[in-house]
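Batch manifest, entry 17 of 40.
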Amino acid sequence: MNDIEFVDKTNKFLRGKFALGDKAKGWDCLNSMAEFFESMGAKFPDRFRDWTWANYAERWQRGEGMEVFRDFLFSLGAPVDINYMGPGDIIIFEKSGIVSVGLYLGNGNFQAVFNPEGVIRLPLRFYRDAVTGVRRLIKKG
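Output type: structure tokens
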């Protein structure tokens, strides 16, 4: 995938509305990542332990099982040192007990879904202290 294809794929989500667990209404951090990577040929698992696509939004709202969600994210792809991230790597964040995920775009920027803003792009430097891991699902080169 070249840089133009990557930008085209990520632009699909930009300014999309926030909607937990309902792609028909908008995006959340997980379903936007799954949709992006599936468009790139990398399939997200249908379930992880007792989290499924059908129940994760409800479980998220209850604050239930954040450790399971974290473990799920860390099970994806291969680990990458934060200093060697490349466009398309996923960034796992944790703050105040809430786990979330964003997509590294390159040049120090990432794309993520925030409530109520929706899908936005931000400089990673403002969130670097909250990064708990980086994973690579798509091989470079």
